[in-house]
Each structure stands twice: as C-alpha cells, then as structure tokens.
C-alpha cells in the first residue's frame, strides 16, 4: 500500500492551496473545490460589471488566483460577451491547473460531478493526520461522547447509546449502512447532475464522464459513443492498474531522474550566481565610466571657474585704481603736484596714455569673463533612453514586425504584429507610440503591455501622424525594437451610419446585406431593357442609395471600399432638401457624349449634367478614381485619372462648407471642393452595372488583443 502521507501534493486544490473540500471534476479532468469554482466564477462575473480585473483581485482571500488566470479572465471579459442575454450561453471557466479556458456548458457548475473517490482519500488522509483527534457524537447531550460509528444514510456520527436509540431493531433505520467514525458522507448512488432523479449507469467515451439513459436518448450525449458502467469500471481499472504497475517497476529510473534533477537544481543555483556576478560586473563598468566622466566634467568646470575668477578679480583691481586717492588716480594726483616742467612732461606722457585707456574702458564697460556655464551643460537624454532600454538581449527571441496590412486607423487604432518565424516565443509584448510633432525636440514614447499580438488604442488625436514600434519579452529577456511604422489618423471623428433601405431604395436593382453595411448592383435583365435606347442615345439611369443618418454640423469622416470589378460608382454627399430630386433626376446618365439631336460631339452636354446634379459626387469605376473636370483641375484628361485606392474616405466639414475625398489607407486627400451645407447632409452612393460598395467596419471590441492558451 502507498503511504497516505506521501500523496499530500495530490490532495491539494490548485486554487486555494488547501486540502480538497467537495472536489468537482472539470471537463479537462482536473479537480477543484466546489467553493473555489464558485469564487472564481464570481470574480469572473464581477469583471464583466466593473470592466476589468480590479474587482476580481478583491475576491475572497481564501482563493489565490494566479496572474495568468486573471489575465485570461480579463481577456475573456474584453472579448465582448454580454451578460443577462436571453439566449442560452455557455460558461467559460479558467482552469488554474492546465491554464485553459474550459467550457462548462449551459448548466455551468451544476453540470459538474463531485469526485467522491477523491473525497474519501482526502478524508483518510485527514484521519491519518489527526489520529489523536476523536470525532464526537452528533446527538449526545453536552458533554458529547466520542462516536463509535457513522451512518452513511443519515450522514451523522453516533456513540453506541445514541446509535441504538436512533436505529432501533425492527425498523427501517436498522438496515442503514454504517462505517467507522468519519466526516465524509457520500451518497450510495451517483445521480446525474442534468437529470437529478436519474442515476448514472453509462459512461460516455467521448466526454469521459458518467451519464444516465436520458442523456443518451435525447440529451447532449445522444450521438456519442457510450458503454456500460461495469465495462467502463473494468476497463479503466485495468488500465490504471497496469499504469501503476509500470510506474512501480520503473522506480529505479524515477530515482535516477530525481537525482539528475537535484543536480540540475544545484547547477541552476550556481549558474544564477555566476550570471548575477557577470551582471554586477557589467554595471560596475558602467559606474566606473560614469564616475570618470563625472570627475572630468567637474574638473573642467572647476578650472574654468578659477580662470574666470582670476580675470574678474584683476578687473576689479583695475577699477579700484580709478577711485580717488587709490591706484592710478592717486598716482596721477601726486604727479600733478610736480612743479618742474621737464620732470612733469617726462612722467605725464606715459601716465596720460594709461588714463586715456582707463577712461575708454569705463565708457565701454564689459566684464572680463562670462558668468554663465551654458557650455558645460551635459546632455544625457540619449544616454537615458539607452539605459532605459537596457535589458538582457537574446538572439533566440525573434524581432516582431508590425503588419501594416492588418493594422487599421479608423474610429480607433488597431495595431497588429507578427513574428517572422510564425512562432510566439515571447510571453508579453510592449507597444510604444508617439505623435509626430516637428516643434517638439524630444520624443516621449507612450507605452502599453499586451499579452497577444494586437492592440486597440483609443486615445489618439484626429488628423495626426503616429510612430509605432513593438518588442517582445520573455521573462527578463527582450528582443530589439521592431522597425518603426508611421500611420495617420482620420482627418475628423468617424461618422457611423448604415445604408438606408427605405428612402428611395430600389430593391429590384440593388441588393443589401442583412447588416446594411454592403450594397451590390448587378447587371441583370433591367439593364438589358434599358440598353434598347442605345440606338437613339446612351441614357441609362443610376441606382442611388443614401445613409440612414444625416449630419447637421461639425466635421466628420467615413470610409468604404469599392469592389475591383465595379463598372461605375459615384460617391459623395446630398442635402436633405434635394433627396427627392436625386431619386427622380431625369438627367442621371452615364455619358451622353453622342445624341442624334445634338448635332456635334463637343461635350457641352457633360457640362450641363455636371451643373445640374443635386448632390456632390465623384466617379469611380474600372479600378480608377476620376477627378471632376473643374477650372482648377488639370486640363489633360489623363492626369485627372488616378488608381482606385483599396479604401476610400470622405471628410465633410459642414462649418467650412467643404467635402474632401481621401485615400483612407494613407489619409491623403485626392480631391476637395465646396459644397452647400445649408440642410441636413447625407452620405450618397450611386451604382450602375456590376458594382459593390462596402462600408468600413469600425474597430470594436472583437479586434482587441487575446491570447489563446488552448
């Protein structure tokens, strides 16, 4: 027999780190206390209400949720799952043992089995650990007597006298099953948690759990492979016995591995001490370099100070000589007392030169030395940045690369990155970004830690450029910074709307998706009927559709993409007072370049149609962007045709009365013109032939970073 005290580590709950109390079996086959499951789920649910893990960390002190489990709770919270939904939903549980997010199904904790076998083993361990502590009778009057047996049917312990009183001969209670004193009472029959009145009599080989016949007939195990409980008992017991026998036979090998692991523990201790010494030596070298630089700088400042003080003190002495009865002035006054002309002239000539110099210096006073030490200011900004990035670099940690195709700048910024080797060798990533500003000399990077490979930023300014970089961390080891990527935010706040399926919508020619974010025009039979007029002209109407929300004031931006196969698409804005005219405009044509009654091909008809349009639109099609023919536009038609961007944007400034058309990928303005914003403005689209337009989806919670541990 295996000693009870030798298996203590198997009887510890991974959540509370105490002996199991009413352990439940998770779908991943790990065990956890019933109370711990509830507390983790409460912490999980609280994170939804409070929007983060702060409240989760304030859960019961009994439970110790690991940092990785809390990260997974926060991640699942940010994944967009809503509470109080009317539709059935499954319950996710972060297993503290295998670090996976386990689906508990719709029944949640009520669908889990109690591990009665583990309960019995824990109880035996407790009895062995407290052999000197007796279990007292539950029915004795004070003082209670020591119990001699426990009834499994009554779930109570009795002394001999109380057992006879409560289980008299000749009654049903006399047939109850009793065992030695215990506090672990388990039911005789294991009941199904989904069908509480049914006992389990089968074993699902797919889910690896006991089930009842109702689960097999019409429950969640209807199509699963099941076997009888006796067969499963026999099979699993044989497998477990063989595995135990195999492990016992390999006892010498296990001991050898333990010896090897002990050596590795000692080697790890020695290597860590050696690494500490090497790191200390590296920092000591930096200290010495800094001390030398510091000493040299202080010596230079001290030398310069002494030289300046000497010059200034000499200048003070010279000016003191200009005072009466002092220095030069006093000497000159004594010379003036000389009465012999020849002697006076001999001395006064040189003295007069000195007096003139002193007079000139007095008129143009200038200190002999500067008092400021601006030339001795030490600029350590670059060195501080280098020291801030000082860490353990490893060649084995790959440098991440920002994926510009998957990254987006719209209502929020979605920054995505990947590793060249397609392996996630880093435990965590650090994303840094800063706004490009030519006026600022120093750059201040904003930093955020990410568990996955993408991050949504919502605090960026409109109409700005930002630089992004990312690096990976694995413990204290980090990779070098990725290549810096510059991205541009939209020129104005993003305006959200859907296609209007009521106002003027032609469902015979246009087709909307259920979410009303995409519209498609198909060149079908109606277009062929309209083409009959080709013999007398080329009049073919466009099919218009507008947004379901209008703009009254301010500056707004929205983006969309046009399918490459689209033949003709017009995009722009329309005022509310001209919507009816838009849908009933008889001059809505493709290109009436030639008509029998015009008599020439001058293109004057085009000017008529451009001026008569009720809304401001630009033409797209055949993978091209056509700049409208205006006096300010180039005269050469070829120079007015640009490649069609993968994503287009429109910026409407109602306050200034201008509308701009942008390449939404780089936020570059392709064309801008004036527009009448006297009424409520609506986004407008027109399609003809085979064409499709897709509104750009805003960056929402579903794009937020996550890391799948399963």
UniProtKB/TrEMBL annotation:
Q: What is its main location?
A: cytoplasm
Q: Which residues form a coiled coil?
A: 258-285
Its Gene Ontology cellular component terms are: acrosomal vesicle; microtubule
Check the record and name the Gene3D superfamilies matching this protein: 1.20.5.170, 2.60.120.920, 4.10.830.40, Classic Zinc Finger (3.30.160.60), Immunoglobulins (2.60.40.10), Zinc/RING finger domain, C3HC4 (zinc finger) (3.30.40.10)
Q: Which UniProt keywords apply?
A: Coiled coil, Cytoplasm, Cytoskeleton, Ligase, Metal-binding, Microtubule, Repeat, Transferase, Ubl conjugation pathway, Zinc, Zinc-finger
Q: Which GO terms describe its biological process?
A: acrosome reaction; spindle organization
Where in or outside the cell?
Answer: Cytoplasm, Cytoskeleton
Q: Which GO molecular-function terms appear in the entry?
A: ligase activity; ubiquitin-protein transferase activity; zinc ion binding
Q: Which InterPro entries match?
A: B30.2/SPRY, B30.2/SPRY_sf, Bbox_C, ConA-like_dom_sf, COS_domain, E3_ligase_FN3/SPRY, FN3_dom, FN3_sf
SMART domains recorded: BBC, BBOX, RING
Q: Which family does it belong to?
A: Belongs to the TRIM/RBCC family.
**What protein name applies here?**
TRI36 ligase
Which source organism?
Illadopsis cleaveri (blackcap illadopsis)
């Amino acid at each position: 027999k295996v000693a009870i005290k030798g298996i203590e580590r198997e009887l510890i709950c991974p959540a509370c780190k105490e002996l199991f109390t009413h352990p439940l079996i998770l779908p991943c086959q790990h065990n956890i206390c019933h109370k711990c499951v509830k507390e983790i789920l409460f912490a999980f649910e609280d994170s939804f209400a409070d929007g983060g893990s702060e409240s989760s960390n304030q859960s019961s002190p009994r439970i110790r949720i690991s940092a990785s489990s809390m990260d997974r709770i926060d991640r699942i919270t940010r994944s967009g799952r809503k509470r109080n939904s009317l539709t059935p939903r499954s319950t996710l549980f972060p297993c503290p043992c295998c670090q996976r997010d386990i689906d508990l199904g719709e029944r949640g904790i009520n669908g889990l089995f109690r591990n009665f076998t583990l309960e019995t083993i824990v109880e035996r361990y407790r009895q062995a650990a407290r052999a000197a502590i007796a279990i007292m009778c539950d029915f004795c009057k004070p003082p209670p007597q020591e119990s001699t047996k426990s009834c499994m049917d009554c779930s109570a312990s009795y002394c001999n006298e109380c057992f006879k009183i409560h289980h008299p001969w000749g009654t049903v209670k006399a047939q109850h099953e009793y065992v030695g004193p215990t506090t672990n009472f388990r039911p005789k029959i294991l009941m199904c948690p989904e069908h509480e009145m049914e006992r389990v009599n089968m074993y699902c080989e797919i889910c690896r759990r006991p089930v009842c016949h109702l689960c097999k007939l019409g429950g969640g195990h209807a199509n699963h492979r099941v076997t009888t409980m006796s067969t499963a008992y026999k099979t699993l017991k044989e497998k477990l016995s063989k595995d135990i026998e195999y492990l016992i036979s390999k006892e010498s090998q296990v001991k050898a591995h333990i010896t090897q692991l002990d050596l590795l523990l000692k080697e790890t201790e020695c290597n860590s001490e050696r690494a500490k010494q090497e790191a200390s030596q590296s920092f000591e070298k930096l200290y010495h370099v800094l001390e030398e630089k510091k000493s040299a700088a202080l010596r230079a400042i001290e030398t310069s100070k002494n030289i300046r003080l000497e010059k200034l003190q000499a200048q003070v002495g010279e000016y003191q000589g200009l005072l009466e009865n002092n220095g030069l002035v006093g000497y000159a006054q004594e010379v003036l007392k000389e009465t012999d002309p020849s002697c006076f002239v001999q001395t006064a000539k040189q003295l007069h030169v000195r007096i003139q110099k002193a007079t000139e210096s007095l008129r143009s006073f200038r200190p002999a030395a500067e008092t400021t030490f601006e030339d001795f200011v030490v600029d350590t900004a670059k060195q501080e940045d280098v020291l801030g990035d000082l860490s353990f670099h490893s060649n084995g940690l790959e440098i991440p690369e920002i994926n510009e195709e998957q990254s987006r700048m719209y209502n929020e910024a979605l920054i995505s990155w990947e590793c060249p080797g397609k392996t996630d060798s880093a435990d965590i990533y650090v994303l840094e970004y800063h706004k490009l500003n030519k006026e600022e000399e120093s750059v201040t990077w904003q930093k955020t830690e990410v568990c996955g490979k993408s991050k949504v930023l919502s605090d960026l300014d409109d109409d700005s450029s930002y630089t992004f970089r990312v690096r990976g961390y694995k413990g204290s080891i980090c990779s070098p910074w990725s290549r810096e990527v510059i991205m541009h935010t939209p020129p104005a706040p993003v305006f959200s709307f859907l296609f209007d399926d009521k106002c003027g919508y032609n469902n015979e020619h246009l087709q909307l998706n259920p979410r009303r974010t995409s519209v498609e025009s198909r060149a079908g039979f109606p277009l062929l009927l309209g083409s009959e007029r080709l013999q007398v002209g080329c009049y073919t109407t466009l099919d218009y559709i507008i947004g379901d929300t209008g703009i009254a004031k301010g500056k707004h931006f929205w983006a969309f993409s046009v399918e490459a196969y689209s033949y003709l698409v017009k995009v722009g804005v329309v005022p509310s007072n001209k919507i009816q005219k838009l849908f009933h405009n008889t001059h809505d044509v493709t290109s009436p370049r030639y008509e029998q009654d015009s008599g020439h091909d001058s293109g004057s008809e085009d000017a008529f149609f451009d001026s008569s349009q009720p809304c401001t639109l630009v033409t797209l099609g055949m993978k091209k962007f056509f700049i409208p023919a205006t006096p300010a536009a180039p005269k050469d038609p070829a120079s007015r045709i640009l490649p069609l961007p993968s994503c287009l944007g429109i910026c409407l400034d109602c306050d200034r009365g201008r509308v701009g058309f942008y390449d939404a990928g780089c936020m570059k303005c392709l064309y801008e013109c004036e527009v009448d914003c006297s009424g409520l403005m609506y986004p407008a689209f027109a399609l003809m032939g085979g064409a499709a337009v897709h509104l750009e989806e805003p960056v929402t919670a579903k794009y937020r970073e996550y890391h799948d541990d399963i």
